[in-house]
Design a protein that fits this description.
There is one protein chain. The longest helix is centred in the middle third of the chain and has 33 residues, at 105-137. This protein has 316 residues and is mainly alpha-helical. It is globular, with a radius of gyration of 20 Å. The N and C termini lie far apart (47 Å). Helix 10 (220-242) packs parallel to helix 13. Helices cover 77% and strands 0% of the residues. InterPro entries: FluC. Pfam families: CRCB.
């Protein structure tokens, strides 16, 4: 019970800061003439941290202090700083030329494939870079102070409550930043749901032997979280386009997309699972099906209503 309480608090703390990191990196890399969507940098940073935090030596060092620290950096921060639902929605936008660029269909296909390949490639590269840093740091040789389990549960639970309350307070006080603060407030709910869905995954590690049937098993918990997040993302986008909104409701729907759906889905965990799945065709099938189903969901829930009802592409 104490371990679960500490882990839940760690997920809340990590999700708030991970979502802030994602939105901050997107804002930093949004400028005229950008060659690729700015979300890719958040995906890369999250995958680097996931690679580092999931390294055997790093995990051993963090667990020596308190097991919840591993959850904070992996499920919480790295999982929330990356977003599968945002990624596949942007791939759909490229396929559909949702931003109405002056180009023909083949260029739209190439744009979507470019975003797909760049995200997968940079995600895997970031994961391996994180592992390389873990090899170099030798953190397991550092003597870290150990927190007693019951004391750690109280500390992490308090940190989670205070972090979530602080985000809500900022949302109420700084109205001009509600498109960001509302996302941060909603992110812990998505991250906690993803953490619970992860129980459906087969325990796996790229370095530990496991039965052949487990090596072929898909991580259904992550797949379900990513699919559910994509469904929610598409529904919120369509809702933005079909109704007349105030600025507050537009920001609230942005918060549901970037916060709830964004933190419910993850690319960093997906990349970690791809390196663990064997044989390679199983990993490829898992990636392709996840990607294809996500794009299809966006097509059905966003594309069809937008094209048949002639909806605007922004919140009106």
């Amino acid at each position: 019970m104490a371990t679960a309480t500490a882990a839940a608090g760690a997920v809340v703390v990590g999700s708030v800061w991970g979502t802030l990191a994602r939105l901050g990196l997107i804002g930093l890399n949004r400028y005229d003439g950008q060659s690729i969507k700015p979300l890719i940098w958040a995906q890369a940073v999250g995958c680097v941290l996931m690679g580092l935090a999931s390294h055997t030596r790093t995990k051993r060092a963090l667990e020596a202090a308190h097991p919840a620290l591993v959850v904070l950096f992996t499920t919480g921060f790295a999982g929330s700083s990356t977003s599968f639902s945002s990624w596949v929605f942007q791939v759909f936008q490229a396929f559909a030329n949702d931003e109405h660029w002056d180009r023909h269909g083949l260029h739209s296909v190439m744009d979507a494939l470019t975003q797909t390949g760049a995200t997968v490639g940079l995600g895997l590269a970031g994961l391996w870079a994180g592992h390389a840093v873990g090899d170099a740091l030798l953190l397991d040789r550092v003597r870290m102070p150990r927190v007693p389990p019951h004391a750690g549960a109280a500390v992490f639970a308090a940190m989670g409550v205070l972090t979530w309350a602080g985000a809500a307070l900022l949302c109420g006080l700084y109205t001009s930043y509600r498109d960001v603060t509302l996302s941060v407030v909603m992110a812990p709910a998505g991250a906690l749901a993803r953490w619970q869905l992860a129980r459906l995954n087969v325990p796996r590690s790229a370095s530990e032997p496991r039965p052949l049937r487990e090596r072929h098993a898909w991580p259904w918990g992550t797949a379900l979280a990513n699919l559910l997040a994509t469904l929610l993302m598409a529904a919120f986008v369509t809702l933005q386009r079909t109704r007349a909104h105030t600025q507050l409701t537009c920001h609230a729907l942005d918060g549901l997309q970037d916060g709830l759906a964004g933190a419910l889905s993850t690319v960093s965990t997906l990349m970690l699972e791809l390196t663990a799945l064997r044989p390679m065709r199983t990993a490829f099938a898992y990636l392709f099906v996840s990607w294809a189903v996500g794009v299809l969901v966006c097509l059905l829930l966003v594309g069809v209503p937008t094209w048949t009802m002639h909806l605007p592409s922004t919140c009106s």
